[in-house]
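Objective 1.3, modelling of assemblies. Example input:
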Amino acid sequence: MTDTTLNLQNRNAQHHMQSFSDFAYTKNPAATHIITRADGVYIYDSDGHQILDSMSGLWCVNMGYGQQSIINAVNDQMKELVYYNNFFGTSHPSAIKLSEMITDLTPEGLNKIYFTGSGSEANDTMIRLVRHYWAAKGKPSKSVIISRKNAYHGSTMAGASLGGMSTMHAQGGLPIPDIEHVDQPYYFEACVEAGEKIDADEFGIKAAQSLANKIDELGEDRVAAFIAEPIQGAGGVIVPPKTYWPEVARICKERGILLVADEVICGFGRTGEWFATDYYEIEPDLMLFAKAVTSGYLPVGGAIVRDDIVDVIVSAGQEFAHGYTYSGHPTCMAAGIANLELMKETNILHQVQSNTAPYLASKWKTLEEHPLVGEARCLGMLAALEIVEDKNSYKRFENSKEIVTRCRDYCYDNGLVMRAIVNKMVIAPPLICSNDHIDEIIEKVWKCLDLTDQSIK
Ligand SMILES: Cc1ncc(COP(=O)(O)O)c(C=O)c1O
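Predicted structure (tokens):
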């Protein structure tokens, strides 16, 4: 470790509070990795190590690091109009243009965008919007939002309440009132519980049925909306069985419940489509986005809302008393515009669909031959490994969390960022990965699984 690294780690420990971190690092500075620069699909730490970022930062740097056209667009926008807000009857060209560009990509009817600075704020905005909508429609009792266990919708009070992470609920008095959680469509875990392979299609219907049961229990007149990530990201890249989404969409429509798709991870190319709702062929009433809309270059999030929802709110004749200083921030909008232009110019979705994602899928599947891997699943540029002690009986390790954390550390030491989630290892590599980069990822994952296996024996 260089002097520079030690110096940065010590200063970091004194003043900087890191996210989703045990603050014990403030007493043990050397535990922190300091990342100093990045280019393409690689990040570099303060000791000069090159590390393949197979998590695209936090599922966001879809077009990779160092894209000059985005940097130039941001620079130009800063010179023209670095900041202005969209409060009290104002707007500006870059917010207008990005809202046009995004709504060009969404299903018919989803035509209005409320910009936020993050995915968490998009979720907060959604709760206020849908409750205000039902009140404006003369149904104020429809205030409950149903979400799912093990979902992730952000870290604000509302986002973490919508999320179904018990560790988050345990801190800070969550969830807030009128949020309910139903089962997640986590097929592999259902096999673990059964101790054997079960029927995936039947399980998908059963998981969707838990939403119908909850609506019955509460009464349709109490339920405003159902929110879900099309594929659960932070919960562990949980890809639902194919029967799940059509059944959920049917239940929501039949019972007059708004369907909200949280596309914060899935949106802007992660599945090879602009949105995962395109992949699943469902039409939500609202869509939430953030992250890859700018490839993470600057913070932008938002809620995309059906025209008729906005029309009902208009008819109520009251302003929507909601706003963030950085809603539609011109410089951040410029990053979004340039990122979407780059995605179109490079035809990146075609590249992902026709080459990168199928290549990743075929290579990823080979990892199922490793003794620690119970399942290697992959959809688009999202992939997960289920770590098990015995794959035939679907038996987990008792200390799974410790084992996957060890595996993650081996990855880092061997030049790969991979995320450890309870009993899974996941990746969400940049869309710009070449097949050579994918080969490098697979080779490193094998090596680190071997190291992990050896450390257990
Ligand atoms: C599905 C989903 N929703 C919301 C969020 C919160 O976004 P942010 O961290 O930008 O607030 C995340 C973040 O990972 C997410 O994965």
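The first strand starts at residue 35 and ends at 39.
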